[in-house]
Amino acid sequence: MASNQFQLLLFSFRFHGMARDAIYTSDIHSNGFSFDDKVASVFADMIGRSVPGYGQTLQMVELLAHQYAQEDSNLYDLGCSLGAATMALSRGAAGKTCSVIGVDNSPAMVERCQQTLKDEPVVIRCQDILDTEIENASVVVLNFVLQFVDKSARLNLLSKICHGLKPGGVLILSEKIAFDDADENRQQIGLHEAFKRAQGYSDMEISRKRTALENVLVPETLATHHARLKQAGFSTSNTWFQCFNFSSLIAIK
């Protein structure tokens, strides 16, 4: 597994119509943030420049899929967007008789994902993940997706995933997180915004995107995530990665 594999993957999206994210150099749309065609067209650049450690999480999805993918099972990337984690699952499970399924409810994302992964042995569905049946699964990925699901629906989604996993199966959950301590929360937000400035975003772009995401992306604390995973039926969950206010967990059935 090449260490720069997923940096090359993200870069390769540029050759499938991906452009540099400059959405918030113009006025915010009144409807706020959505995964429409405009966002889909720049999403690879947007997430790479907005989420510290994103490339690392993709590398570890491949590694964890290699570790936990079971023969004759399904691997799901829920909220697959352009398919970066879907491809990571596929490569991690290479050599095993697994079916890799990516699901996203954005037609614009699905269209680009299908084009990007047209030569990969994966299936991409345009469907709401809340309606997706999870069956015979050994690995499920929610890569910065649960934060966009209504809080009232999160437990049911995780319970459904747990129920659909085979014994020993895993959920890989990556999220933007919040902190109970107000000072720490402000500090981590400040560090995240410093990261985005270092990636070339202006203060105006950062402010406009923050406003657009308000009440759309709703983060929770790590303690809340772990407690909910236990309530959903997982036997154990651990935090394996954190960079500022972004974290990744693995939960085992």
Automatic annotation (TrEMBL):
The lineage of its organism: Bacteria, Pseudomonadati, Pseudomonadota, Candidatius Mariprofundia, Mariprofundales. S-adenosyl-L-methionine binds at Y54, G79, C80, S81, D104, N105, D128, I129, N143, R210. One of its GO terms (molecular function) is methyltransferase activity. It catalyses: prephenate + S-adenosyl-L-methionine = carboxy-S-adenosyl-L-methionine + 3-phenylpyruvate + H2O. It comes from Mariprofundus micogutta. Catalyzes the conversion of S-adenosyl-L-methionine (SAM) to carboxy-S-adenosyl-L-methionine (Cx-SAM). PANTHER family: CARBOXY-S-ADENOSYL-L-METHIONINE SYNTHASE (PTHR43861:SF2), TRANS-ACONITATE 2-METHYLTRANSFERASE-RELATED (PTHR43861). This is Carboxy-S-adenosyl-L-methionine synthase. One of its GO terms (biological process) is methylation. It comes from the Bacteria. HAMAP family: Cx_SAM_synthase. Its EC number is 2.1.3.-. Residues 77-169 form the Methyltransferase domain. Keywords: Methyltransferase, S-adenosyl-L-methionine, Transferase. Homodimer. Belongs to the class I-like SAM-binding methyltransferase superfamily. Cx-SAM synthase family.
